[in-house]
Amino acid sequence: MSTGERDRVEWMDRTKPEEKGGTERLRRSGTPAHAPTGPVGAPGRAMTSFTPADEEKRRGVRRMKSTATGLLLLVAIVYTLAKWAESAGAGAWAGYVAAAAEAGMVGALADWFAVTALFRHPLGLPIPHTAIIPTKKDQLGVSLGEFVGENFLSEEVVRQRLRSVGIAERLGAWLAEPEHADRVTAELATALRGALTVLRDSDIQAVVSEAVTRRASAQEIAPGLGKMLEKVVSDGGHARFVDLVCVRAHDWLVLHDEQVMTAVEGGAPGWTPRFVDKRIGERVYKELLRFVTEMRDEPSHPARGALDRFLADFASDLQSDTDTRARVERLKGEVLDRAEVQDLIASAWTAVRSMIMSAAEDERSQLRLRARASLLSLGRRMATDAKTQAKMDHWVEGVAVHVVTTYRKEITSLITETVASWDAEHTTRKIEAHIGRDLQFIRINGTVVGSLAGLLIYTVSRTLGA
């Protein structure tokens, strides 16, 4: 099948998909029928389809082929006429024209062979080192990957390029504009809401609960509590709490005098007279009320001093006494193991999530206002402060170099594997559509240069022979 016939068949396949089956198109193109053609399984999809722009380029290639071939036919006709004129005794000029035309044909044919050998076997003959692109496609992909890795993905090239760009200064100037800061803030809020929507509450609650529990279990709390209590007692911070307890105790005793006296009478021996029990209950209640009242009204009451000493001793025991610290740890473990505490820890995520979602949706929330202000401040510093620029550029360079050096093999293998996945025939035609027009100028130039070279050689030969 000629090139023109193949082009017409492919054009029919593309313009009448309802009349041609996918398997038939694959058979005509040389691709196995089982080859994947979907967007997921066909990395070579871009190389097995022709866009309208590709079709226009192919028409340009055909026009240039016709021009180059026409020029070859022209010099062949000129050569024939010149040789006829020379044999008819037209004069010396016929020899010069014939030599130029002959050399032009040789140059045109040689360049035709060279250009054609890139894409296919000339005249269909399996001449060695022809059809280079379809037969050497995979090797070209490997070479291209190695070339990109060595010349574009090296640490020196990446650092030099990023340094010349000045990312920090440009990004800072862009970010310092209020409308740009608003845009970034809105995008960040959208991304945050999306992330919170995707995450499952049960998973996050389990992670938070496990993290808090593990952290609390691993960290001994008694020494910290002891230091805190010691600081509170030394600063007198507990005095207000003692005042509150004394006031509440006094008020409770005033309101519940009967219950207190009844409780005292109920604890008396059975053999004592009831009036004695009553008098003792009244006496105990009055003394208890007087004691609480004095503690409430006298900051220097001995009981307050005794309480201060007790708390100071307890703070010291929390920090240094082994038994006290062990008891606190056991109590901490019992508290953490209670279902109510675990539910409280897990439910904290729900409250935090709701708070963050509300703040992200509200343009006037403190979260978004502070984020916007931080972005504006960062942008101004990056745009004007040399130290900040250097620090940001160094960080960007480090990240880029890390990615390049770590994943260079994966990046180059992506190029190699992508090229290897392309269909050879379609790849050849696609490449020819893009560069074939320029290559036809080689044939034209070969014809012209060959003619001039032949004319020069013939002229020098005649001159030296004379």
Quick overview:
It contains 20 helices and no strands. The chain has 466 residues and is mainly α. Residues 1-62 are annotated as: Disordered.
Explain the layout of strands and helices:
Blueprint: H1 3-15, H2 22-29, H3 52-87, H4 92-119, H5 132-135, H6 137-151, H7 155-165, H8 167-175, H9 178-198, H10 201-218, H11 222-235, H12 239-255, H13 257-266, H14 274-297, H15 302-320, H16 322-337, H17 339-361, H18 366-384, H19 386-421, H20 424-465
Tell me what you see in this structure.
With 466 residues, this protein is mostly helical. The chain is built from 20 helices and no strands. α6 runs antiparallel to α19, α7 crosses α19 and α15 crosses α16. The protein is rod-shaped, with a radius of gyration of 47 Å. It starts with a helix and ends with a helix. The N terminus is likely disordered.
The fraction of residues assigned to DSSP E strands is under 5%
The major sheet is characterized as:
none
Helix and strand sequence: HHHHHHHHHHHHHHHHHHHH
Terminal CA distance reads 53 Å
pLDDT < 50 runs, ≥5 residues: 1-46
Q: What integer value in Å does the Rg equal?
A: 47 Å
**Number of distinct beta strands:** 0
**Structural class, judged by helices and strands?**
mainly alpha
What is the general shape?
rod-shaped
Number of helices: 20
Percent range for helical residues? over 70%
- Mean pLDDT across every amino acid position: 82
What brief labels describe this structure?
DUF445 domain-containing protein; 20 helices; DUF445; mainly alpha; 466 residues; 82% helix; rod-shaped
